[in-house]
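Board work, copied verbatim: Type-4 uracil-DNA glycosylase
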Amino acid sequence: MTQQEIPVGRPTAEPFVPATTDLGELRAAAAGCRGCHLYEDATQTVFGEGPARARVIMVGEQPGDQEDRRGEPFVGPAGKLLDRALGEAGIDRSLVYVTNTVKHFKFKQAGPGKRRIHATPDRVEITACRPWLVAEFAAVRPTAVVVLGATAAKALFGASFRITRSRGEVLPWPASAQNPAEFAPTEGFAVATIHPSAVLRADDREQAFDGLVADLKVVAEQL
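↓ predict structure ↓
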C-alpha cells in the first residue's frame, strides 16, 4: 500500500505495518502511516524510542505538542518529569523504551494564537493505532511494561481497568481476549501508574510525584 492510500472501512494501521521486528524499519514505515485521520493535522508520526532490547517498555497516551514538533516521545514537560522520576526510582532512563498508544498528536486549537490543546484519543483511534504498539512489543520483547495513565491502561488491559484501583501493583502481562499472544512475550509483568502529565496538573505536585516514584520503584524491585 502506498503512503497516500487510506484503508477502506474500519480505520487501522495494519496495512502500513511491515512484517519485521527491526525498529528502524518500523519507524520508517510509521512515518507514512495513514491508518486513521489523525495524521491529517499532526506535524508528523511520533514513534517510540529506546534500546532495541530494552528490559522495560513504557506506554503513554499520545505525543504532546512538543513531541509532535520534534518527532520524539516524552521530550516535553511531562517527559522531563518522567526522567526525574525514573532517576529517583533507580531505573536507568537510557535502558527504557518509551512509546505511546497513539502515534499522532490529537488536539484542538483555542485561545489567542490558536494554541494547540491536547484532546484525548477515542476508542476508534486507539484501536486503529494498536498494530504499531503490537509491533513494538514484538521487536523489543521487554521484561516489564509500565502503563502510564488511564488511556494506555484501558488500551492494554481493557475498558474496565482503573488506575485508581490497581496502580503500583505487579500485574500479569497484558493479553487481549481475542489474541492472548498479541503482546508477546507473555513472560513478564506489568505495572500501571499515573501519567506524568497528571503530576503536572495535580493540586499537590509533590505528593503526586512521590506516588509516581513509588510505583516505579515497584518496577525496579522486580527487575
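The chain has one domain: 14-222.
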